[in-house]
Design goal:
142 residues, alpha/beta, Rossmann fold, 8 helices, 5 strands, globular
Length: 142
């Protein structure tokens, strides 16, 4: 069965109808939920969701509520950033010129042999050929 590491960009994008990838992100996450597909993501996902959504909604309670709802999804396994994962993320960040948080998602995807799903252009471009990385729309059309 296919497992995914889903970047925060996809979750956040699915909640903002003004974003260009809104519909695809929403449809992809609905499919993941409907089909009970496994998600393996860093615990960082919860922090990024709370931060971005609290800013976007200008409402800390709403941001936390969305972050906790994602954290509690039954098909989500959260992975803590331990020493070995931190080193793997650092190596990916340095080698592929990634932002730190992007490298953490990539390291999780690589370690757990999942497909990284993202709307982040840098991840898509810089990780191509390093690990499976796709936009939500690509998965929907397969």
């Amino acid at each position: 069965m296919t497992a995914y590491t889903i970047d925060a960009s996809v979750h956040i994008n699915s909640l903002n109808e003004n974003e260009p990838e809104f519909g695809d992100s929403q449809a992809f996450l609905a499919r993941v939920e409907r089909e009970h597909l496994e998600m393996i993501c860093p615990t960082l996902l919860v922090t990024e969701m709370a931060a971005a959504l609290s800013r976007a909604f200008d409402d800390e309670e709403k941001g936390m509520a969305f972050a906790m709802a994602v954290r509690d999804l039954p098909n989500l396994r959260l992975v803590s950033l331990d020493d070995s994962l931190a080193v793997a993320a650092a190596e990916l960040a340095a080698r592929h010129r990634l932002r730190g948080s992007d490298a953490v998602y990539a390291a999780v995807a690589k370690q757990y042999q999942t497909t990284l799903i993202t709307n982040d252009r840098q991840q898509l471009e810089r990780l191509s050929g390093v690990l499976p990385v796709k936009r939500p729309t690509q998965v929907l059309t397969e």
